[in-house]
Write a structure and sequence with these properties.
Number of helices: 1
Strand order of the largest sheet: 1-2
Largest sheet: 2 strands, antiparallel
Bound molecules: zinc ion
CATH superfamily of the domain at 8-46: Ribosomal protein L24
CATH class of the domain at 8-46: Mainly Beta
Order of helices and strands: EEEEH
Length: 64
Amino acid sequence: MTTVKYTKNCDLCGVAVEIKGFTLTSEKGLLSFCCAGCQSIYQLIYMNRPSTDTHQPSINKEEN
Ligand SMILES: [Zn+2]
């Protein structure tokens, strides 16, 4: 057996995570990212939706 260090792959791009700290806690659990960029992108893509808010912004905006 080979000795494997605890490594995780970036949940966004799949690159091995070498630096701890870029993590997010989501419904799926703790997510790890290789860099702050991936972390913020993941937030934008997956965590930008209001979960409980039922108010939807109207697309047709009247000019005043
Ligand atoms: Zn990444």
